[in-house]
Amino acid sequence: MNDYWPAVYMFIAWVVFFGTHVGLGATGLRRHLGPVRFAVVFLIVASVSFLGLCATYAAVHFEGRSGFGVRGVLLPAVVTVGFVFMASALAVYPRSPMAQVDGSAPEPRGLARITRHGFMVGATLFGLAHAAMATRLTGTIFFAGFAVLAVLGSVLQDRRLLRARGPAYAQYLAATSFFPFAAIAAGRQRLVLSELSAWGLVGGLVAAAIVRAAHPYLFAAYGLPFAFALLGPAWFFTLRAIAKASAGPAKTAY
Fold first, then answer.
1. pLDDT band at 240, cuts 50/70/90?
2. In a domain, 253, yes or no
3. What is the rounded CA–CA span in Å between residue 171 and residue 222?
4. Is residue 135 included in any domain, yes or no?
5. Is the dihedral of CA 53, 54, 58, 64 positive or negative?
6. Would residue 189 count as lying in a domain?
7. Closest by alpha carbon to 89, among 128, 130, 121?
8. DSSP assignment, residue 66?
9. How far apart are CA 145 and CA 154, in angstroms?
């Protein structure tokens, strides 16, 4: 049983993070504080719990039962594709429905034709591939949690935006898909390569290379390098959205 305790600690750390990350959104705190103050509180609480999650993994990632330890070139390639999805989503985020403060849902273009949740799809690929490659059960649990969080987060985000924006977002949902290329295969969208961001492709490949090179150091110092690498973009885009919302509604055009 002692071999399983590190995995149990890792699971508990994820439960705490899920509880704060999802639980806050399920309360009436958003209505009480308003969207701007709620976003600040949410980001602070999520950051603290995420730092705890990373610190837990940094402490136990060499301990406990063995993981799957899958080797080969396929899973690293999947991780790279995941980075490309995430970078591409960040490159076009200001034009996405999630970033609009006026309640609009722009016509799907580029990455949105492939998947409406490019960042979440990338995080899912990243998490599942690393979960399979992990040599310890702690690593399998740690990285699988990112995939679960991404899928659950996509569902909850769609539900929240549908409630908030009504028919405009319902039409966007009907025209797009979460699973990559599903809307294209169903005939609801078409692939337009010229609309895809070259910066997303380059950024994803560069990010994958940097992370690969920094692999031995990501979980040094209580996992702070890994934590800050993920929290940095989250803080940037949240504060940017807050500034945009505080400046008043303004439509974003393609």
1. confident
2. no
3. 44
4. yes
5. positive
6. yes
7. 121
8. B
9. 14
pLDDT greater at residue 254 or residue 88: 88
As for how many domains the chain has, the answer is: 1
**Domain contains 252:** no
Q: Which domain holds residue 69?
A: 2-246
pLDDT in tens, 184-224: 999 999 999 999 999 999 999 999 999 999 999 999 999 99
For helices 35-60 and 137-165, give the axis angle rounded to 10 degrees: 170
What are the φ and ψ backbone dihedral angles of 176, each rounded to 5 degrees?
Answer: -125, -175
Q: How far is CA 229 from CA 129, 154, 226, 237, 247, in A?
A: 19, 21, 5, 13, 28
Regarding pTM above 0.85, the answer is yes
Burial of 11 (0-12, 13-18, 19+ CB in 10 A): middle
Average pLDDT estimate for 31-58: 89
Spatial CA neighbour of 67 closest among 124, 148, 143: 143
